[in-house]
Amino acid sequence: MKNVWYLLIILMLGTLLAACSSEGEGSSGDESEGGSEGDLSGEITVWTMPFSGDSENEEKMWNNMASTFEEEHGVSVNMEQIPWSNRDQKILTALAAGSGPDVFYAIPDQMPQYAEEGMLLELDPYLEGNNMDDFADSAMESVTWDDSTYGLPILQEAYTLFYNLDIVKEIGGDPENLPKNWEEFKALAAKAKENGYYATSFPGGGSMNGALYPWIWQAGGTVLSKDGEVGINSDQSVEAFELINTMYEKEWIPQDSVTAMHHNELWEGGEMLAVTGSGINLQILQKSGEMDFEIAAPLKKEEQATYGTTGMFVVPSNSGNPDAAAEFVKYMTNAENQRTFNELTKYIPTRESAKDIFEDEPKLDKLAGFTEYTKPGVIHPAARDIMSPIQSEVQAMLEGDKSPQEAADAAAEAIEQQVGK
Amino acid sequence: MSQEETKEEEYRTPPEKQPKQPKKSSLKTRMKKHWDKYSLIYIFFVPIMIHFLIFQVFPFAFSFVLTFMDWKIIGDSTFVGFEHWARFFQDDLAHLAIWNTVVFSIYYIIPTMGLGLILALIINSGIRFAGFFKGIFFLPVVTSFVIVAGIWGWMFQGTADGLINMMLGWFGIEQQLFLSDSDQALAVLAGLSILKVSGSTMIYYFAGLQSIPGQLYEAAKIDGANAFRMFWQITFPLLKPIHFYVLIITTISSFQIFDSAFLLTGGGPNNSTTTIVYYLYEQGFTSLNLSYAAVLSYVLFAIVLVISLIQRKFLGKDDNIY
Predict the structure, then answer these.
(1) Residue A288 belongs to a domain with what CATH number?
(2) Predicted ipTM?
(3) Where is the composition biased (Basic and acidic residues) (chain B) (predicted)?
(4) Are A68 and A30 in contact (CB under 8 A)?
(5) What does the pLDDT average to over B38-44?
(6) pLDDT tens across B60-106, in order?
(7) In what order do the strands lie in the sheet with A310-314?
(8) Which of A117, A201, A274, A345 could form a disulfide with A51 if both were Cys (CB 3.0 to 4.6 A apart)?
(9) Is residue A82 located within the same domain as residue A151?
């Protein structure tokens, strides 16, 4: 029976070892608590996302950044890449278990929600001398909630219309003079339909940030303001609902727009006049080189506006090493590192001084110029809660169950309910 | 909701201790004896038990505690009593989600069982290349759900270019919207699940078919029964334990349906494919309302439990048919 004892001991040792090692990975820099600025030490864990298709070079870039930071500040940095799928789930469960990162990536509709829940560290005490005026206003707007700064932006995007020029020419449009406002767009869309093309895409199953909100803003409407004022059923906003409904009824947008997540096949197959896209679309189109395309400025009815996210790095409030984490966020988003990052990933830098990287790339430069019209979605803790009910109402409208006004009113009611909670 | 998975583990618990002749010996020697005899069982049982406690019992109990709290990811949670439970009874969307899930099971359970049985009959019929067909039928089961769903979504595209729409066009049937139509979307998703799962129900039925004694068929043949009669009089009734098992597992999996709605419709159009687990996920991880999500998960648990008990009462009892 001695063997049995050995087996038991080995099993127990194994369990202990496993427990220890996971402990070691999870807690990052607990020993360095209380370190003040300028006196940093310990360890931090940073979760980044795959921002481009080139994960190898991205990893190199992050590791370079980490080692330079380590040399300068004596803080060792673990860079970990987390896939996009289920990232909320991963971050939330890790944070709840106290084994989360010290720095992670967030977008503007997460930030106020997380901040309101007390999950984020306020960065203002760390920002003196960080040349904050250099950040674009539209980017700073996205990282601020309740007059506090909760993250520093590293990238911006601008969504705008990409036109297939072969189709534009075929239907008698002028490639030099693409639509600037709704009237011109509608005229061209009708021509596209006459010639058997779809005018554009409407991803009704995707995020309303890109699908619905830009139309509302262009019409001069709002969805939900920072102060909780609901504007989605104002006269202006309803015009956006009406336009989308018209586009669907006239089949300017595909019949499956109700739940489609994208219409890439139709666009790439040359059956669609225009899609809403950003830097990533530009990259794909330039890489394949098969389509003659042009990007046009965001449309205007009352206001020239479009959606464009702002990507930021934030520090969770339960970070074991907040000082080092905040310092690293500042470091990642300084002008030099923004140049390196955005040159590789083809996003738009948020620091004005870093925007010189696209001088040789006229299309990207043009796109970068549109960030002045971008809005980062709805900045409100309920931004993500309200999206699903709004989506349902738009779908009900497209299915013909509700008129645009009724859908907008129902959406407003749903938003009121969510905000009032 | 993995209560069912644990059943398997329960079977591995040690058998009842054999009543031994009580000899007058000290407790120590008795314990020693007991240990010598059963030590191996404990060594295998204890880690499983620990795993079971940590990963099954603890989450199950803790999520029940959650339902009475306003649980924060970071920071102090507050006790709110029955607030979340009360909310459930007024939440129309939660009721709709349950209804959608029930409708989904109606679309899903019987076809999955039927198709599995038909496939099993095909490969059991002694046709040539039975192994090849078995592989083909089983392929969707082992393929990643994301890929199968992607292909399904592409086939059922609601535009004129969609594969199924093109095929319908050959028969003069007009273009359908499929996933973009609230009356069809749930059925299309059920079709996907049927395709994905019937391969594994086929395997259960195949095992069941193999265990039916051949002399029954011989006797029936002598009595002049035709194939149809043999199926309904012998095969079908003798598969009863398999029917029961397959019914239970397909029922449970139908109530847990989530991934197809998540991948293909996002719960739409107009919430027509918002199932209970999809809604629960949204509440938990998009709205950070983990306490309410826990309430929903308990509601789901209760529904599955009640249905399983009913099925057991009416179907599970008499497997003494052999």
Answers:
(1) 3.40.190.10
(2) 0.79
(3) 9-19
(4) no
(5) 88
(6) 999 999 899 888 877 778 888 898 999 999 999 999 999 999 999 99
(7) A76-81, A43-48, A103-106, A310-314, A151-156
(8) A345
(9) yes
